[in-house]
Amino acid sequence: MALQHDTEKVSGEAFNEVGPLGPPFPIDARVNDAGHLEIGGCDVLDVAKQFGTPSYIYAAGDLRYRARAAVKAFHDAEAKFGDGTADEPGVLFASKSFPCTAAYRLMAAEGIYCDVASGGELHLALKGGFSPERILMHGNNKTDAELEQAIAAGVGYIVIDSFDEIDRLNKLMPSDGPRTLVRVAPGIKPSTHAYIQTGQVDSKFGIPLSQVEQAIQKAPNFVGLHCHLGSQFFEVEIFKAAVEVLAGFEVDCKVVNVGGGFGIPYLEHEHPPAIDSYAEQITSAVRETFGFGAKIMVEPGRWLVGNAGVTAYTVGTVKEIPGVRRYVAVDGGMSDNIRPMLYEAEYTGVIADRAAVQADRDVRVVGMHCESGDVILPEVMLHEPNVGDTLVVPATGAYGHAMASNYNGVLRPPVVFCERGEARVVVRRETHDDLSARDVE
Ligand SMILES: Cc1ncc(COP(=O)(O)O)c(C=O)c1O
């Protein structure tokens, strides 16, 4: 791809949801006078030189801006469709998307709530400064230890996913313990990859519709209903359908949580709905069906962090197979971004120091792992990639760091926050000693 040359630095309040480079790049990204890609005011080449590659590079201002935009959108929608009696809407950071202490800290400071899906994420959320009552715990198979951890921490909410969990909670839960929501499998399929659909009838998540009333009867400290349809879809209207399903149960709901999944642009031509349209659709649907009292909750993950981050790699080999294709191999791959292999997720790329130059080569970008499936960009236009080039893949801010592995003994990359021209490491690169740190002699 080729990016527009833009000399105006984007900063502070001038942000809107798409920056000068367009989707899928961070808002606070531009091509600088040297023709290099700049993220958060930092030249990506300098960041790559200083911290090495692969590196996850975030425009920290984007994270803050997106958190504010989401909170504002849901508060505005509540002011428009509510009557002022409901508790404030809760925008939860689905922290599985970026479980990084610095991200938790930043989100907590912006008035966001937090959703955790394991004892480990709960530990990180608390360490990142979330007050426990703003934390909600998920999981289709929470252990006794995790439930005890959540109760002891005093989390605000536990989302119940099964009858076995209800049995466990009925043994463990004090009457003044966390409030519970029952997760419903609403039988709705959004248009997205099958592996990230979750709200369909045949799902490992949630209580089947026919058993929801029974679950509500048995659930301790019940306050409301939850559903999560899936991830990375652009259908705003589908939330109305989900709310209508939840509203079909004869129960007093103090909380209605419709999950996350708000789609983001991974490719240049993708233009997902604005956050305000999600907020208005969800809020109007809840107010029409549940009335005015229920607190609305949503759980965006990728929407808050996905486009704020990019991955910088170094090109190590370029191989031409005559009449077939050109392979460009970089120093990372499935260990830092498993999504293309897991659910055929698509990305694009750009050479950092020729970011504004017309791309002229159709290539396949592959990783360095011992797997033929280790393909990051199956077909992408790049400007003549050469050994030593810094290749940037945008929109890796969600589920990149989160899903990273040590496959092939690869060291997991650092997370670098860039803002106003300053780059700081918030998670360091692993070392070879880290690889054996858990060994027991
Ligand atoms: C229950 C729940 N809520 C929220 C999310 C966040 O999804 P996304 O990052 O697509 O917004 C997920 C993702 O798997 C989820 O399972």
Helix content: 25-40%
Let me know the average pLDDT.
94
Radius of gyration: 22 Å
Distance between the termini: 50 Å
- CATH architecture title of the largest domain: Alpha-Beta Barrel
Q: Name the poorly predicted regions.
A: 4-16
Which fold name fills CATH's third level, the topology of the largest domain? TIM Barrel
3D shape:
globular
Number of domains: 2
Based on secondary structure, the structural category is alpha/beta
The tally of helices reads 12
Report the sheet with the most strands, covering strand number, pairing sense and barrel closure: 9 strands, mixed
What is the count of β-strands? Answer: 21
What's this entry about, in short?
The protein is an alpha/beta fold.
Structure characterization notes:
With 441 residues, this protein is of the alpha/beta class. The chain folds into 2 domains: 177 residues, Lyase, Ornithine Decarboxylase, Chain A, domain 1, CATH 2.40.37.10; 219 residues, Alpha-Beta Barrel (TIM Barrel). Helix content is 26%, strand content 23%. It is built from 12 helices and 21 strands. Strands 4, 14, 15, 16, 17, 18, 19, 20 and 21 form a 9-stranded mixed sheet that branches. Strand 17 and strand 18 form a beta hairpin. The protein is globular, with a radius of gyration of 22 Å. The protein starts with 28 loop residues before the first strand and ends in a 6-residue tail after the last helix.
